[in-house]
Design a protein that fits this description.
Elements lengths: L3 E2 L13 E5 L3 H12 L3 E6 L4 H8 L5 E2 H6 L3 E4 L3 H12 L8 E4 L3 H4 L10 E7 L3 H9 L6 E7 L5 H11 L7 E3 L2 H16 L2 H15 L4 H10 L1 H19 L2 H14 L2 H16 L1 H11 L3 H11 L2 H15 L5
Helix pairs in contact: 1-6, 8-13, 9-10, 10-16
The structure holds nicotinamide-adenine-dinucleotide (NAD) and magnesium ion (4 copies).
């Protein structure tokens, strides 16, 4: 069973006199900077240049400085710039200023696991990976809660890396619900496999396939949209709150029987084989290689696919129906 840590396992003492540099002020960066500051910790925001993130940080009462400035003065450096950018920031703005006993902290294991960043032995390397988007990390914290996170230690030069990881997890609110211990390998691979085969890839393509099949069969796209796409949230909400068994108990007997029998026919052993293939491609590092190459070419595949999605019928219908759906939502 997974090892879970909560508030009682975490203590600020070990980091309260340390200077923390947060690199990046986007989704996670902003949330971490605000939460750690509210937790009484010493935070500096380090950024590349004076753009949107810089202005936002100033508006939030920080005094952002250039990346190398923040790193030079820091004991703990937290990488919250995009994953594909981290190795360049490391090579140009962090590595030259590394000090014995410094901490390099990540919110996702990609760069360390795939060895795009190879820190020297005399630093600690650990991770706190929130299981939710930055704005939620902030919002839950403000209301006394927190988003659960994964924590992992890759390099433990000081012998205290896990204690520091837990202190930072506490500072962003994650130990309030609890954090789960993992490894960089497990976090990185499961994150990629999950988003590809299930969350961002599998589920959305299933929704789009079901929608387009109904439309091709002559059903009205508006009706198809409600059934195959919009209702997904309601089913997922029930699974989220009550589990699969609870969801099956909540739907009609007809939906239960049809779902149980046809679900396994559509998502069959063949699909499982492909999920496994995709997972192996993540494990072998082939996916990371492919993605880095795509990114370095300027992401042509991503750009083309984004355009295709934007111009798709399901997107147009969704945009049209969203007003109507919004009108029906509870007003408070
Ligand atoms: P983001 O894209 O929201 O923010 C990136 C920040 O980096 C911005 O301040 C941006 O100005 C800055 N930046 C962009 N390009 C840069 C460059 N070339 N050089 C320097 N700075 C640059 O990023 P994010 O989604 O917060 O992701 C940060 C880390 O958190 C990643 O490792 C990601 O995997 C991890 N993470 C994100 C989420 C999430 O929901 N967004 C969840 C868990 C973990
Ligand atoms: Mg993820
Ligand atoms: Mg991810
Ligand atoms: Mg229905
Ligand atoms: Mg029904």
């Amino acid at each position: 069973m997974a090892k879970i840590y909560t508030e009682k396992d975490a203590n600020f003492d070990i980091i309260k006199n340390k200077k923390i540099a947060i690199l990046g002020y986007g989704s996670q960066g902003r949330a971490w900077a605000l939460n750690l500051r509210d937790s009484g910790l010493n935070v500096t925001v380090g950024l590349e240049r004076e753009g949107n993130s810089w202005n936002q940080a100033k508006k939030d009462g920080f005094n952002p400085v250039h990346t190398e400035e923040a790193v030079k003065n820091a004991d703990i450096v937290i990488f919250l710039v995009p994953d594909m950018v981290q190795r360049y920031v490391y090579r140009e703005k962090v590595q030259p200023y590394l000090k014995d006993g410094m901490d390099l902290v990540f919110a996702h294991g990609f760069n360390i696991h795939y060895k795009l960043i190879e820190p020297p032995n005399n630093v600690d390397v650990y991770m706190i990976a929130p299981k939710g988007p930055g704005p939620t990390v902030r919002e839950y914290f403000v209301h006394g809660g927190g988003v659960p996170a994964l924590v992992a230690v890759q390099q433990n030069y000081s012998g205290k890396a896990m204690e520091k990881a837990l202190a930072i997890a506490k500072g962003i609110g994650a130990t309030r619900p609890g954090v789960i211990e993992t490894t960089f390998k497990e976090e990185t691979e499961t994150d990629l496999i999950g988003e590809q085969t299930d969350l961002v890839g599998g589920i959305t393509e299933l929704m789009r396939t079901a929608f387009n099949t109904l439309v091709e069969m002559g059903y009205q796209p508006e009706v198809a949209y409600f059934e195959t796409i919009n209702e997904m949230k309601m089913i997922v909400d029930i699974i989220h709150d009550k589990g699969f068994y609870g969801m099956l108990k909540a739907v009609s007997d007809t939906a239960k029987y049809g779902g149980i029998t046809v679900g396994k026919y559509v998502i069959n052993e063949d699909v499982k084989k492909r999920v496994r293939e995709a997972a192996e491609k993540v494990r072998s590092g082939k996916f990371a290689e492919e993605w880095i190459e795509e990114y370095n070419r300027g992401s042509p595949i991503v750009k083309q696919a984004m355009e295709e999605v934007q111009n798709s019928l399901e997107e147009k219908i969704g945009n049209e129906l969203r007003d109507m759906i919004e009108r029906g939502k509870p007003k408070s």
